[in-house]
Structure formats: C-alpha cells, structure tokens
Predict the 3D structure of the following.
Amino acid sequence: MSTARPDDEGRLISPELLDILRCPLNPSRARLLLENGRLRCERCALAFHIKDGFPILVVEEAELPAGCESLSQLPCQREEAERGSAAGHGPR
Ligand SMILES: [Zn+2]
C-alpha cells in the first residue's frame, strides 16, 4: 500500500518533457513550472494536474489561481483581449 504524494508525481516529469510543455491557453510563450506536484503556468498561473506521470493539460480540469473565477479572468486572456482592441492605431 503506497500513497503517492504530490511530490512523487512531479518527479516523474522529466526536465526534457517540462521543457517542451506549454500552457494550452497561450502555447507560443507560456512555460509550465513544476510546483508541488502540479504544473503551473508561469503566465496565467493555471495549475495542471499530473496523473501517473502524465501532465493533464486540459484547461477545464486545471485549477484556477486564487482570486480568479473564470478562464477569461486569467492575465494571459485579458492580455490577448487588450492587444486586440489596442491594435489599429494609424500613424499620428
Ligand atoms: Zn497560461
């Protein structure tokens, strides 16, 4: 009988794998950091679970950071929205 602690799950993730994993919300930029047996996005702070050594990169199953009630409130999502509205300024 072995109870897997969160730390054990994280140890199964190799640095190489960690290096190529990206947050599904903004895959081009955000990297994931191993933290307490979870993968936390360094930008939006979503925490993805690790199950049997496999990262579950499903946004719907990830834990929202404290103070965030929905995915649209995440910093990286708001950033995208702002960038969209800020574009289109002509010269002068
Ligand atoms: Zn993210």
Observations:
- The two ends are 70 Å apart (CA to CA).
